[in-house]
Amino acid sequence: MRNIAIRVSYDGTDFNGYQIQPRGRTVQGELEKAIKHLTGEEVTLVGSGRTDAGVHAKGQVCNFRTTSAIPVERWAIALNTRLPGDIIILEAWEVPYEFHSSKSAKRKTYRYTIDNGKFPDVFSKRYRFHHPARLDVGAMRSGLSHLIGTHDYTSFTSTHSTKPSHIRTIYDARLIEEGSVLHIELTGNGFLYNMVRVIAGTMMFVGQGKLQPDDIKHILDGGDRSLAGPTAMPHALMLVDVEYDEKSE
């Protein structure tokens, strides 16, 4: 039995999220169908995280166990010919049997993209949230700095979160400017349900002057979802990268 890891990119617009659902098209479902078509095996694909409906991925990592003898360097090409156009496998590699794409992950990076121009770009609006009113970038950067470190992020997760602990570590929180386009990038050891989208919505409140940068520390300490800003729309969120120990790469 082999354990194969794959790095996957997908446009989440037309998916009902990553994880298989009773109804609706999912990324996991399409990948498992392609693997069955290629090998005849029914596999259970493990993803590094469950992206919501409409959320995209540039570097989602998944793994599955197989008895197939297909050389590892052929998996990506073979599966891509059996996948729809909004999913692409970028690479495949063999990993130790105990490797688990979620439990073995050390760092994840998410990006939330805001188009702060007067008019949206028709060619990229599926991947950016358009906010035509000017945002205070300096205030947003200052607000983000309070999120770095190990904290209880209860204020920045959905009230529907089922995790037993909301303590996570954010290693880096940055705002990148590309003209009128703003990218909020967060790198951490894990993220809670809707956490990045709540942070993005709260930072836009800071950029609008509805909250002050130093309010973020008080929101964190308060441990109450109602203290933070709104949950930002899903279509501007992307899972950029998942990192592992070198022996797993």
UniProtKB/TrEMBL annotation:
GO terms for molecular function: tRNA pseudouridine(38-40) synthase activity. It is an enzyme of class 5 (isomerase). Pfam families: PseudoU_synth_1. It comes from the Bacteria. Signal peptide: none annotated. It catalyses: uridine(38/39/40) in tRNA = pseudouridine(38/39/40) in tRNA. Its EC number is 5.4.99.12. InterPro entries: PsdUridine_synth_cat_dom_sf (IPR020103), PsdUridine_synth_TruA (IPR001406), PsdUridine_synth_TruA_a/b_dom (IPR020097), PsdUridine_synth_TruA_C (IPR020095), TruA/RsuA/RluB/E/F_N (IPR020094). The keyword Zinc-finger does not apply. The active site is at D52 (nucleophile). Substrate binds at Y110. Residues 8-100, 146-245 form the Pseudouridine synthase I TruA alpha/beta domain. Gene3D superfamilies: Pseudouridine synthase I, catalytic domain, C-terminal subdomain, Pseudouridine synthase I, catalytic domain, N-terminal subdomain. Keywords: Isomerase, tRNA processing. Belongs to the tRNA pseudouridine synthase TruA family. Homodimer. Formation of pseudouridine at positions 38, 39 and 40 in the anticodon stem and loop of transfer RNAs. HAMAP family: TruA (MF_00171). This is tRNA pseudouridine synthase A. The lineage of its organism: Bacteria, Bacillati, Bacillota, Bacilli, Bacillales. The gene is truA.
